[in-house]
């Protein structure tokens, strides 16, 4: 299990196809919720440099965006086809009711934008596409927001890893940095939320 959670081991063992499969599993099927998507993207970006890169950066970016986009589309279709039964399945129990409810709260509060926001939040990004399908978000709307989210998540973290990964502090605190990015990105949403409450 530890090797499954070690991004460097995963990348060196399975290469670029492994990165794509892991991103797809994390965002496309509920059983991938425990996989280290954020740190995997960052470390993969770091490993595009040096004397023995896993792949050119441009190829990694294409692969990560396509895998992330495809994964969410599958999750959406699962939610649309199977409905609430998916969340009551064994995979849903493994994720836990609290985490599923957290994802549902994000979805209810922020609507379509949740598809983008959820990309940067572990576990939530696994559940939100399913919730979008269950809640019957129009497919074209989901595709649009999914594409934006896949482009943002699938490029920003690998590019950061490529250019900043040699800085030891950044490399050792990837998860905290991602949380900081999430916090900053949520500021406009929070301000809008409180502004709307004042008008009520």
Mind explaining what this structure looks like?
The protein has one domain (3-199). 75% of the residues lie in helices and 0% in strands. The mean pLDDT is 76. The protein is an all-alpha fold and 200 residues long.
Task: List the topology elements.
Elements: H1 7-28, H2 37-46, H3 57-82, H4 90-95, H5 97-110, H6 114-117, H7 124-134, H8 139-164, H9 168-172, H10 174-199
The coarse silhouette is elongated
Please state the CA-atom Rg, rounded to the nearest Å: 17 Å
Percent in strands: under 5%
What structural class is derived from the secondary structure elements? mainly alpha
pLDDT below 50 for ≥5 consecutive residues: which ranges?
Answer: none
Total count of domains: 1
Order of helices and strands: HHHHHHHHHH
Helix content: over 70%
Mean pLDDT: 76
Characteristic terms for this protein:
75% helix; 200 residues; mainly alpha; 0% strand
